[in-house]
């Protein structure tokens, strides 16, 4: 908003923070996303009404919709992102995998075509070897994905994944590939211009996930050595150049315990977790996207891209962390105070005290980012920031976030995408005091009818 000045909003968000920040705002419809933020015709009308010269799509809704980018181009309006060819090529998991192979990018062994029936799925899974991952070709955000360890689970996974893919993306095509057990999820930020130049802006470690959705991210990764980082970065740039990519984008990889890495997908948009890359490189990615969209060449060379310090992002959600590591909680924020009084703390949010957390949108409250010269410093700041955050009126996931960033396994860097189910096999129960400390606390604080019991 600070860069672009104009915005759109649904009827229920006319008093939202992004509307207040904008010089000009246009209502595009009622709360349901299909009638507002996904209503392409209403958004195009807002573009015409305001005389906008360019549109930044953010990192949701129409941000990876090639038809939207095409519609803007037809009206002479710049889409601040890649062109329609790159969006389409990387948006389809089957096509993107074929392109990655041709660009000599490491890919996960699997079937390169569309799986049409449950019987065919079983046959392919047997050929690949269990376990396998069944996932939607047009998918993202963890939807339309199932792990299968045998024939029965493959049949069931095919049925559920195809149904979920059809309802979520309007496309029920599935692919099957080898499931990499206990991997890390590490992604490379790329930036490319319209003149054939491309850079890799180091990595982000995104292994802490629930339901295949990221919870805590950090940059750089504790796991990568300089040679592996360079190899991943160079392959990410090879892929970007293969589709003539221009803008900021993210190439996601799975990395096994031996540092073998495999292409997962490319997100042709700004990522939620982009602030941690900005912290360690000093680059403003939104500014760079706007410059590229205008036609400017990149200002930097690969040797100019540093890793300065360490940054960590916690996704603060209006969720109940005690139910499946986070089920949405709706309501009004009766009290809200961000920890901005602390040094090297950044809070990207779109809400304020009195805001409503709606059933219609993602329940994210903010992206809480801390930075330090070392990882230990960034983690200590994150702990302080979480402790200082005040959120009342909705249930939130700060108790879980705090437990994660102080857990010995996380602190030591011993993490995989299975971290949460491994550390909390029975679900998250909150901070557990040791028996000795509980006994000592009881002796110090006698219980009464109004006291907290343990």
UniProtKB/TrEMBL annotation:
GO terms for molecular function: ATP binding; metal ion binding; propionyl-CoA carboxylase activity. Keywords: ATP-binding, Biotin, Ligase, Nucleotide-binding. SMART domains: Biotin_carb_C. The keyword Ligase applies. Residues 1-425 form the Biotin carboxylation domain. Its cofactor is biotin. This is Propionyl-CoA carboxylase subunit alpha. It comes from Cyprinodon variegatus (Sheepshead minnow). The lineage of its organism: Eukaryota, Metazoa, Chordata, Craniata, Vertebrata.
């Amino acid at each position: 908003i600070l860069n672009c000045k104009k915005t759109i909003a649904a009827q229920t968000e006319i008093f939202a923070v992004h509307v207040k920040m904008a010089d000009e705002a246009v209502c595009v419809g009622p709360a349901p996303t299909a009638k507002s933020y996904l209503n392409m015709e209403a958004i195009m009308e807002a573009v015409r009404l305001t005389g906008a010269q360019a549109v930044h799509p953010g990192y949701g809704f129409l941000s990876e919709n090639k038809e939207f980018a095409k519609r803007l181009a037809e009206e002479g309006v710049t889409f601040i992102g890649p062109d329609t060819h790159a969006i389409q090529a990387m948006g389809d998991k089957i096509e993107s995998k074929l392109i990655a192979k041709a660009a000599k990018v490491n890919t996960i062994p699997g079937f390169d075509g569309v799986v049409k029936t449950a019987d065919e799925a079983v046959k392919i899974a047997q050929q690949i070897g269990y376990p396998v991952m069944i996932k939607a070709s047009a998918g993202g955000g963890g939807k339309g994905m199932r792990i299968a360890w045998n024939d029965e689970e493959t049949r069931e996974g095919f049925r559920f994944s195809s149904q979920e893919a059809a309802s979520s993306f309007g496309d029920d095509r599935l692919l099957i590939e080898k499931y990499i057990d206990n991997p890390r999820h590490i992604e490379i930020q790329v930036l490319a211009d319209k003149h054939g130049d491309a850079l890799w802006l180091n990595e982000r470690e995104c292994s802490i996930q629930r339901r295949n959705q990221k919870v805590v991210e950090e940059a750089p990764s504790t796991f990568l050595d300089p040679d592996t980082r360079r190899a991943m970065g160079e392959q990410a740039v090879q892929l970007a150049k293969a589709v003539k990519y221009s803008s900021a984008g993210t190439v996601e990889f799975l990395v096994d315990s031996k540092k073998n890495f495999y292409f997962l997908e490319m997100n042709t948009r700004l990522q939620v977790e982009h602030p941690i890359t900005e912290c360690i490189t000093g680059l403003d990615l939104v500014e760079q996207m706007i410059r590229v969209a205008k036609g400017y060449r990149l200002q930097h060379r690969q040797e100019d891209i540093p890793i300065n310090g360490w940054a960590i992002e916690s996704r603060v959600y209006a969720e109940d962390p005690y139910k499946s590591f986070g089920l949405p909680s709706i309501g009004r924020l009766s009290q809200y105070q961000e920890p901005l009084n602390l040094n090297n703390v950044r809070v990207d949010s779109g809400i304020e005290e009195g805001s409503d957390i709606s059933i219609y949108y993602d329940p994210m409250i903010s992206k809480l980012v801390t930075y330090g010269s070392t990882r230990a410093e960034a983690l200590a700041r994150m702990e302080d920031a979480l402790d200082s955050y005040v959120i009342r009126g909705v249930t939130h996931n700060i108790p879980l976030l705090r437990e994660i960033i102080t857990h010995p396994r996380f602190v030591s860097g011993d993490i995989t995408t299975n971290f949460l189910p491994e550390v909390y096999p029975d679900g998250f129960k909150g901070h557990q005091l040791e028996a000795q400390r509980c006994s000592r606390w009881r002796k110090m604080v006698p219980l009464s009818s109004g006291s907290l019991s343990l």
